[in-house]
C-alpha cells in the first residue's frame, strides 16, 4: 500500500483532529519554470514524462513538472506531518534534549496541543517529523484534477471552512465564514481582530482567502497575481480521517 507524507497548517490540523476536514487541494504542477525554447524532440521527451508544456510563442514553452500529488490514488494513505517538540517528560513538563536522537522512547508534543512544554521551547518544523510520531492517517477515497476556482460551497466546507452567526454583513446580522477562527483576538497593527474582521460571506470565499494567505508571497512574485486569481490546476483529494499512526492503521487493515 502506497503512503505519502503531507503537511498542513495548524488551523487545518485542528480541523483534522475534529474530523471536520475531509478534503485538501494541492497544486498539480510545480512551476511555472522560465519560458524556454524547446526543439520538437525535446518537447516530445517532456510530454512522454507527463510534464505540462504550455506554448508561449513559436518554439517557446513554459514547462511544468507534475507534483507528487498526481501519483496519489484512491485507497492509498497520507500520513500527516505536524510541527512538534521532542524531549523527556519531567512531571507535567516536557524538557527538550537537543543532541539526543528521536526514538520511540522520546516524548513528543504536537504544536496544536501546546500544553505541558517548557517555556521558550524550540519547535521542530513539520518536514522533520519522523513517520512513527505521526498521529493522523488520511485514507484517500477520491482524486480529482480540477481548476482551483471549481471548488463548490460544499467542497469548501469539507476543506475546513465553518460559519458563526451574527458576525458578517450590515449590522453583523448574517453568518460569517472562516478557515481560521483562531486569529480572533490576535493583535494586528495595533488592533485586535474580531469575528467580523475574520469572517467572509461564503465558505468558498473563506477558502480562497485562506489559500491565498498560505501561498501568496512566492506565488505573487512568480505570477504577479494571487493564487486564487491565477486559477491553477489542482489535485482535489477526498479522504477519511483516522486518528492513529499510519503503520498502526496498515497493521490493523492487514490483520
Explained architecture:
This protein has 255 residues and is α+β, with helices and mostly antiparallel strands. Among the domains are: 30-65, no CATH class; 84-124, no CATH class. It is built from 7 helices and 16 strands. It has helices spanning 10-17, 40-48, 153-159, 195-198, 203-223, 227-230, 246-254; strands at residues 3-7, 23-27, 29-30, 36-37, 52-57, 60-66, 77-81, 84-90, 93-96, 107-110, 137-147, 162-168, 174-178, 187-188, 191-192, 233-242. It has a 5-stranded mixed sheet. A hairpin with a 2-residue loop joins strand 5 and strand 6 (60-66).
Short descriptors:
single chain; five-stranded mixed beta sheet; 33% strand; 255 residues; four-stranded antiparallel beta sheet; alpha+beta
How are the elements arranged and paired?
Elements: E1 3-7, H1 10-17, E2 23-27, E3 29-30, E4 36-37, H2 40-48, E5 52-57, E6 60-66, E7 77-81, E8 84-90, E9 93-96, E10 107-110, E11 137-147, H3 153-159, E12 162-168, E13 174-178, E14 187-188, E15 191-192, H4 195-198, H5 203-223, H6 227-230, E16 233-242, H7 246-254
Parallel strand pairs: 1-7
Antiparallel strand pairs: 2-16, 3-6, 4-6, 5-6, 7-11, 8-9, 8-10, 11-16, 12-13, 14-15
Helix pairs in contact: 3-5
The low-confidence parts are: none
Helix content: 10-25%
Query: Globular, elongated, flat, extended or rod-shaped: what is the shape?
Result: globular
Topology, number of strands: 16
Helix vs. strand class = alpha+beta
Cα end-to-end separation: 14 Å
Order of helices and strands: EHEEEHEEEEEEEHEEEEHHHEH
Rg over alpha carbons: 21 Å
Q: How many separate helices?
A: 7
Binned strand content = 25-35%
Largest sheet: 5 strands, mixed
Strand order of the largest sheet: 1-7-11-16-2
Mean pLDDT: 84
